[in-house]
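Bit of a strange request maybe. I'm writing a small parser for structure token strings and I need a real example to test against, not something I typed by hand. Could someone generate the tokens for this chain?
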Amino acid sequence: MGAFSVLPLVYCICTALKPLDELLVFPPRFFVYRPTLENFAELPALLESLEVPLSRYLFNSVFVSVVSTVLQILVASMAAYVLSKTQIRGRVVIFLIVQFSLLYNGTTLAVPQYLIFSELGLIDTLLVYILPAIPSSMGVFLCKQYIDSSVPDTLLEAARIDGAGPMRIYWQIIMPIIKPAWMTLLLFAFQGIWSISPSSGTIFSEELKTLPYVMSTISAGGVARAGASMAATVILMIPPILVYFITQSNVMQTMSSAGMKE
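Reply from user aminoacidic:
Good idea to test on real output. This should exercise your parser:
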């Protein structure tokens, strides 16, 4: 099943390396017989007519992905710390609300988010990308479950006796111990945010659009640009794959702890 799930990635790479005659052959072939880099070399020519330089789209994607991922990790880990290791009133109810919010996807929240952005005057700003990515129900759930199973109360009590405050405990004790949890969250957060495209009605300025948006315009050329479209897709996959290789050793450890509760 793992090998089967890799087939779309293999097909994408094979298509990106196919010359035009292999793209037009019928019935379609899965593998490439005469690999070429022409589709990758064609991308600069297709993008040179853009009103905004490609570097601007790249900057928007990198900036939004990095800032949103960092803020999501910080907010999720802080919330998990409070819900797990403090006696705040209503923490059980709050965590139940967090769990129920996992049932909702981005589509169901599109209209309420648009109304909020409109009232706050955030339409056509980068905050449209960043703000919805900061609260993460999955991130809070993963971090809290990991804290419950990996951070003993006696360790925190000893830190308080030594004079450590809440923020010092969070930075020097909680965050190092739950590194597998927030590294896993880093993978999921970056992967989701990197591929984000502006939703209709929120971003109008071309200078505020992201790299996936401009890359998606390449596929508008039909079958003739299928190779270039797949080449653009392969390029967009590189950053998430690199992040995966960095964080993969922490993913299994976090997932195995997410279902454990002492």
